[in-house]
Amino acid sequence: MSSLIAATRFSVLDRSRIREGHTGAEALRDTVELAGEAERLGFHRFWVSEHHGVPGVAGSAPTVLAAAVASATRTIRVGTGGVMLPNHRPLVVAEQFGVLESLFPGRIDMGLGRSVGFTDGVRKALGRDRSDAEDFAALVEELLGWFRGTSPTGVHARPAEGLTVPPFVLAVGEGAVVAARAGLPLVIGDLRDRERMRRGVDHYRAHFRPSPWASEPYVVVSGTVAVAATPGRARRLLLPEAWSMAYSRTHGTFPPLPPAERVEELARSGRMSARERELYASGLTGHIAGTEEQVAHELETVLKETGAQEVLVTTSTYDRAALLDSYRRLAAVVGH
Fold first, then answer.
1. pTM of the model
2. What is the CATH number of domain 3-226+289-333?
3. pLDDT at residue number 336
């Protein structure tokens, strides 16, 4: 193991993906189980995500799920990757994280994103539209103000006020700009577009303003990492997610994850449209996947390119046993 990898934190983000033939309740329980395994393997933090109205994702209430994860673990940091701030009032978000930090002191992270829903129908149901994302910087400032007790309204966020819950900004579009100006840690993905990721990191570091939350830049790079005994087995872990992404881009809905065998049959049989095949092939590229030795080499390359202090792994697949094996192998690669 290289000294660069040894000096880097490794964490897990789980999206509570639903598998074909399984329920959303099972997906949520799988997330809590994976958190326990991540803790045993020595990962630094475990985050959950926010998605609304998506057939293939059960994680719609990240602070609620984070509470379940924190209750089922003892030492690993727990947080959100992230709460989509334009969907919520900052006061309510502050109160939710204040409750979490009060119940699990010193273990809670507050990852914040700027997305406002996958489809027009979801945005309408949330009472939001695309323009709400433009207010992200102001929403972040308001949210942090509730923790500092600086709201001009005379209202106090209980029990958030006075607590320190580390905030992170998820870089989507303007996210890196917001993180730099606010002086917050940056979570940037994905590993598939290394050039774009490097530009975002460079901009963030060049324009970072120290704040009470962070005295210097802190970069977390995020993406899929799949580890298996052979390159072929590692690649098979990527097939369900790649097909689901291709399907969502052509049908407007993100489905549950299918078994890798069915995806392989679809590819062989010619039942994918030309556009689906193009998107599916694209979805298999750019990830870090292979044996322990191959993955170690790729991780070291990414860390040298970005200077990141942390890697947030977001792997999803149908085969839960293979996914757990991948995380165990990754833990061995990074020295946990």
1. 0.95
2. 3.20.20.30
3. 73
